[in-house]
Design brief:
binds aspartic acid, mainly alpha, 19 helices, about 400 residues, Proton glutamate symport protein, single chain
């Protein structure tokens, strides 16, 4: 008799709930340090595996996308339209994030919290614009790969993809190698993602057991603020652009994008969601060669949810540390959060690491991140969902701007 297998998102939701219950039991039994020593490492292994995937996935999928476009002029034209869409929507996201954070803050809804213990983060580099621009161009290909410097990896993919097109017939072997390795890495990705329920279960137990149930309650408000920002952005910006530029009604857009949104919500990785977003975008009617280019690029640099989160978190942490920000400082937040979100990799928790860059620019103590570390996953679910939705909407708009027809597939 054949057994019906539970879908991955269902498995993840069950793991999340079970993790909270077991976490509460461990908290009551005083087993916090046990969970930190023996359960958190399971989550770390999973995150390591995801990070390991990012470079090959971005590199291969982008080169593959460029090759499949077959014409350098088309890459240039699709490229600038895509980047323009990404930049505009990310800047709007920052403004929405700041608006709601200021409303919450003005109403005195942001509480002062205690530091969360036992967490670590990587310090981000400075947000100087020219430095950021120069740093995009690699001086050593392998260094870009080993540091997982995503902007450099994108430049490498653009150059190599362009080289393959320019070399014509002689590049046949290179083309075959790229598509063959891409198929392999796709299988590896599917396998690693299938392990995510175990990681979610272990991480949830650790979070609840070490932080206690109160941490979730006291952070509910800042979480609510971010989620209002995510939802307003999705409804205002994405359904508007899908309708106005691509002629897809908001209802059909969200219905078509739903599988990718749910997957992103549960996996918290834009990169891992790529195959699902590709399927959704193509079904909604995006041209396949355009979605092969826009989606991997979007999964790497287009992070509107991350931008909203970084703005909300910055205002929240500034308040927690007793700072009052001026309008000028808010403008700096918009610029740095836009840059930080571009530099954020499409992997779980990456946006929180880049938040350190925004905090440093604002003169806020980076140690404050500890306060929201414990519930980062809850922020991450929503922001990744929004990030992926933005990529799908962009692939539809660019298809239309390139003179293509939106032809939904059954
Ligand atoms: N997890 C997010 C993503 O993959 C990035 C982030 O942490 O903000 O899109």
């Amino acid at each position: 008799m054949e057994k019906k297998k539970m879908s991955l998102p269902t498995q993840i939701v069950i793991a999340l709930l079970a993790g909270i219950v077991v976490g509460l039991i461990c908290y009551a039994a005083g087993l916090a340090s046990f969970t930190a020593s023996y359960l958190k490492p399971l989550g770390t292994i999973f995150v390591n595996l995801l990070k390991f995937l990012v470079v090959p996935v971005v590199l291969l999928s982008m080169i593959d996308g460029i090759i499949s476009m077959g014409d350098m002029r088309k890459v240039g034209s699709v490229g600038w339209k895509t980047v323009a869409y990404f930049l505009c929507t990310t800047a709007i996201a920052c403004v929405i994030g700041l608006l709601f954070a200021n409303i919450f803050n003005g109403a005195g809804l942001f509480p002062v919290l205690h530091n969360a213990e036992g967490a670590t983060w990587e310090k981000a580099t400075s947000a100087n614009f020219m430095d950021t621009l120069v740093a995009i161009f690699p001086d050593n290909m392998w260094k870009a790969f080993t540091n997982a410097d995503m902007l450099q990896v994108i430049v490498i993919a653009l150059l190599l993809g362009g080289g393959v097109l320019a070399a014509g017939e002689k590049a046949k072997l290179a083309k075959d190698i790229v598509s063959s390795f891409y198929a392999v890495i796709d299988k590896v990705m599917t396998f690693i993602i299938s392990l995510s329920p175990i990681a979610v279960f272990a991480m949830m137990i650790w979070v609840v057991a070490t932080q206690g149930p109160n941490i979730l309650g006291s952070l509910a408000l800042v979480l609510l603020c971010a989620y209002i920002g995510y939802i307003v952005h999705a409804i205002l910006v994405y359904s508007f652009s899908a309708k106005a530029f691509a002629g897809v009604s908001p209802l059909s857009f969200f219905k078509g994008a739903a599988p990718a949104m749910i997957f992103a919500f549960t996996s918290t990785s834009s990169a891992a969601t790529l195959p699902v977003s590709k399927e959704c975008a193509d079904k909604l009617g995006a041209e396949e060669d355009i979605s092969s280019f826009v989606l991997p690029l979007g999964a790497t640099i287009n992070m509107d949810g991350t931008a909203i989160y970084q703005c909300v978190a910055t205002i929240f942490l500034a308040t927690c540390s007793g700072m009052r920000l001026t309008v000028g400082q808010m403008v700096i937040i918009v610029v740095t959060a836009t840059l930080a979100s571009i530099g954020t990799a499409g992997t779980p928790g990456a946006g929180m690491i880049m938040l350190a860059m925004v905090l440093t620019a604002m003169g806020i103590d980076v140690n404050m991140i500890m306060i929201i570390y414990g519930i980062d996953r809850l922020f991450d679910m929503g922001r990744t969902c929004l990030n992926v939705t933005g990529d799908i909407s962009c692939s539809l708009c660019v298809t239309k701007w390139e003179g293509g027809k939106i032809q939904p597939k059954a």
